[in-house]
Amino acid sequence: MVPLSYYLVLGGILFACGVAGFLIKRNIITIFMSIELMLNGVNLSFVAFAAHWHQLAGQVFVFFVMVVAAAEAAVGLAIIIAVYRTRETLNVDQVNLLKL
Amino acid sequence: MSLHLILFLAFGAVCVAGAINLLAQTHPINSALSLIAVMAALAGEYLLLGAEFVAAVQVIVYAGAIMVLFVFTIMLLNAGEEERTKGSRVAILFGVPGMLIGSTLLAWVVLRHSGTEAVPIGALPGDPKIIGQLLFHEFLLPFEITSVLILIAIMGAVVLASKPEAVQKKKEH
Fold first, then answer.
1. Which domains does chain A possess?
2. C-alpha atoms less than 13 angstroms from C-alpha of A69 in its C-beta half-sphere
3. Could you report the per-residue pLDDT of A3-34, keeping only the tens digit for each?
4. Domain that includes residue B48, residue range
5. Is the dihedral of CA B63, B66, B70, B75 positive or negative?
6. CATH of the domain at B31
7. Which of B27, B47, B72, B82 would best serve as a mutation to test chain A binding (most A beta carbons within 10 A)?
8. Residues 6+ away with beta carbon under 8 Å from A100
9. pTM
10. Does residue A38 sit at the B interface (CB-CB below 8 Å)?
């Protein structure tokens, strides 16, 4: 038997790692992966609350989060490819202009 | 210590270790592989919570499809080691203690004030049938809107990733 709070703390740790990666990392792909890590932490909280309150709607929300994550990954990676084509770099410090 | 708690701690340890490894590695492919480990361990956590269908979708969609897309992009762009930049001294001076205090406070409050009743195994059947009924009755409109979102995302990805005409013309000449 595991209390709800343990799941929440684990989700919080994952989210915090995602935030730290988003701020620390310099590679644009790794920054993107940190965002996925944050979404995963939120998903864990959703499922834990769904189990705690006996509401299956929480699990349905997880599907919506996954759909949005998939759409975001597809568009975001396409943008990364477009950026790499014009800048020839993946370092976010060198991508500091919106124009070409 | 029950088996449930032992399994929770084991999967949770894999999750946290993978997340920290994602931060520590400098090569993006290593980060991607540790993220896959985090997602697989999270699927185990979902199984402990009785959400079988979510666990299956987590492995298939997240650890499968999305991470393949990431690994594919890393290989396509031939991403190498990232260059480290020195952070500002203020960030280290105030950021690290602030983060430690904030996270300890948050964990303390959550552990202290949330309900201590445990979540029993199988208390909530994450049956695909019930989830499907919920998805197609109560959440029908959001479901349709997300399908439109997916369609827009597909078109956006194709438009963004396709080569601009100027580059193509240059290649032809």
1. 4-94 (1.10.287.3510)
2. 28
3. 888 898 999 999 999 998 898 888 899 999 99
4. 1-82
5. positive
6. 1.20.120.1200
7. B82
8. A86
9. 0.86
10. no
